[in-house]
Amino acid sequence: MRRAWASCVCVLVACAPAPDEGDLRAAPAQAGALRQGFGEPEARQAARLATDGGEARDLRQRVRELELRVAELEADGEALRSANAELEDERAQRAGAVSELRNELALETARRMEREQEWLAYTRAIAELELPLPEEVAFEADLPPGETSSEPLPDAPAPLVDLGRSTEILRSMRTLLLLEQVAGLDLLEAGVPCDGWTGPVVFRLLDGHGRLAGGLFAERMRLEGSRAGRTITIVLEEGYETRSGARIPFTAGAQGESGVRRITLPHVDPEPWLQELSELFADQGLDDPLDDGRWSLSVVRHTLNGLLREDGASGWYRLRQLGGVHSGVLRDVQLEHFDADGVLERRLFCDRLRVLREDRGVLLSLEDGTQVRGDQKTPFLGGRFRVYLPRADVEAWTRAGVPGLTEPE
Question: In angstroms, what CA-CA distances link 19 with 5, 16, 280?
Answer without folding.
Answer: 24, 9, 147
